[in-house]
Amino acid sequence: MVLMSDTGGGHRASAEALIAALHEAYPDRLSTWVVDLFTDIAGPPFGRLPSQYAFLAARPPLWRAAWEYGRFPPTRAATEAFTTAVSGGAVTDAIRAYAPDLILSVHPLCQTLVLHALERLEPRRRRAQLPRPPFVTVVTDLGGAHPTWFDPNVDRLFVPSDAVAAIAARCGVPAAKTRLFGLPVRSPFWGPLATSGTAAAVSPANGAPIADADAGAASASGNGAAVAPPRPPVRRAVSDTYYALEGPGKSPARSLTASPAKRATRRALGLHPDVPTVLVVGGGDGVGGLAAIVPALTTALGASSLSLATAAEDGSAPIAQVVVVCGKNEAVRQRVAAAPHVPRVALTVTGFVTNMADWMRAADCLVTKAGPGTIAEALICGLPMVLSAYLPGQEAPNVPFVVEGGVGVFRRRPREIAKVVAGWFADPQRLEHMSARARALGRADASRNIARSIGEMIPW
């Protein structure tokens, strides 16, 4: 029984990734249900939670207020008591009806309410001599996490980063229950099954406790590889703007060269195979200021033709291309597609796509808001990132995770974003260095490792 809520697309994507990994690891042995705890079970007034999330996410000051309300212990306790009083019975009835052998939460609001229901069912289980189903939480935030993710009574907690593991410890989750495998991502981002043993050798299938020295050593390199490339020096500026500074020296005489696999992927997507490519995404809802960012990018790249050594001799071929994925936001897609044409800069605009892994593998760098799933997928694909926005509280810790990890920068203004991308395309050595660093931090086998660890908890 997988518990989530459609507050943003990341929770359902994580649920589906874990289910796919579980069925791969245990074919024909599992039945799984993805349940929206609030719309499917809890009922009024919580059935409107997804639409309320969208309303708050579009208004950052209100979002921050809601975030802090949930962090403040007295208001959090009062809200949890109210939620249990209103919906505790319905949740208890649902658990009794589903009779799951294991409960898996991928949402920060699915811990306390369900654990209370399990406690309420415990006398009945004891009389029937039935075991309590294990309760597992998989945190799907990356650089930080809200305290509602963490309940000391969980049976196992999976965290994606050292920073989140530290928060779990402060919230009272025993270190012996915590495992660090990375953020679960969709199956197109996984590595070949035959190579997954590398990560498994460092992180055993049942997961070493977070305090284990070997597990800590593995997490330092992101995927159990030897030693990751060194991070470039980073300076944090005032007003929460982050700047990655020194790195390898410029090499403007050398052009950015695509690998044969990248060129083949570009051809399959209808893109120019040998042209530096920036991918701009706004999540499933197409947010993040795409309509302002794209014209700034095309203008800056068009003006940088003297420093980009990719032009054809006849001067007619593109020197760069911008690919924009607008998600389900048709209004934004139309505005972006109507942007003025810039000579020798190709522009490809699409809506919602189901093959994001292909688009990422076709790109040389990424412009995105600081969503955890997108960042995790970009790391696997070796994409340096320009983060353009973040939700206060929830996504804010993802910014230093990227910048201090040496794999990207944060810029708010479209012209600054465009300047960074043009500079990277003019400096292939720096871009390749950041790409190598991103791959070292990526965890393509996180979903599989989590699934194997969960599998050992199921009472087969």
What topology, given as strand order, has the largest sheet?
2-1-3-4-5-6
Q: Which runs of at least 5 residues are low in confidence (pLDDT < 50)? A: 195-206, 212-253, 309-313
Question: How much helical structure, as a percent, in the residues?
Answer: 40-55%
Query: What is the radius of gyration computed over CA atoms, rounded to a whole number of angstroms?
Result: 23 Å
Structural class: alpha/beta
What is the overall pLDDT average?
84
| Number of distinct helices | 18
Beta-strand level of the residues, as a percent range? 5-15%
Query: How many β strands by DSSP?
Result: 14
Distance N terminus to C terminus?
15 Å
Overall geometric form:
elongated
Largest sheet: 6 strands, parallel
Textual characterization of the structure:
The two termini are 15 Å apart. The longest helix has 26 residues. Helices cover 43% and strands 12% of the residues. About 13% of the residues have low confidence. Helix 1 packs across helix 18 and helix 11 crosses helix 16. The chain is α/β, with parallel strands linked by helices and 460 residues long. Strands 2-1-3-4-5-6 form a 6-stranded parallel sheet, with helices on both faces. A 6-stranded parallel sheet has the order 11-10-9-12-13-14, sandwiched between helices. The chain is elongated and about 80 Å long.
